[in-house]
Amino acid sequence: MKNKFITLIASACLGLSAVAQDFSKVEIKTHNVAGDVYMLEGYGGNIGVLSTNKGLLLVDDQFQGLAEKIEQAMKEVNDKPLKYVVNTHYHGDHTGSNSYFSHKAPIFAHENVRERLSNKAEPNRDELPVVTYENGVNIYLDNEHVQLRHFPTGHTDGDTVVYFKNANVIHTGDLFFNERFPYIDLKGGGDVKGYLKSVKTIINDYPSDAKIIPGHGNITDIAGYKVFAAMIEYSIERVEKALADGKTEAQILEMGIGEKYKDYSWAFISEERWLKTLVTGLQ
After folding, report:
1. Full-model pTM
2. Of 117, 173, 182, 221, which is the most exposed, with the fewest CB atoms less than 10 Å away?
3. For the segment 182-235, what is each residue's pLDDT rounded down to a tens digit?
4. CATH code for the structural domain at 2-222
């Protein structure tokens, strides 16, 4: 199962069509974050749901094979119509069910998300966002003010952070892998130092008591995000110093990340892959 997970996530994050997978045993778990904002946990990137008397807003939608399960979980939160869908970026574990939900509500995303989905080897017009923006946009649904803000050159070149202002909840997309090494898509416009800059900006620009739905990992808060930021900064400084000292990639891999952050390895981004990303991105 572990190898299948790695293959599926890797394919999705690289913008490829997801490999055939049996999702029949996947359970969608629902967590209340704060107020009318919920997180759906399934198989892929964390999903955000805003529940109001006038309808629902969905942030990301995992894999196509999970669309009906996601819809059922939403109905159990609130059996109101879906009004809007937001994609935080283009990777398949966040946009895989677009082709299902696009028939129910318009999809919002940064313009680079539409471009990258359009340029896939096997594009599907049903999965394309129909409302795009350059810097951001506001959505008002019932009593909630939803702010979409683009962060360039971070995880990809099309990252959107979603802030539910009244509930005081942030969905970071993959600008946050809670207690894990992040995937920085260098071929998809991502940037190592840009990633850290985006993380620090989010920490500084949003309320210190905000709750956070990360792209992957458990619900947390700004304090948890600061721990993640410290890991990124430490990693960059460690590898930059090693490169300045003339160390090769092989020597940096042998040196490792250090004891403090060894537990941040996970199925997709191991310590070795994280270090290789840093070496490539910092040279």
Report:
1. 0.93
2. 221
3. 999 999 999 999 999 999 999 999 999 999 999 999 999 999 999 999 999 999
4. 3.60.15.10
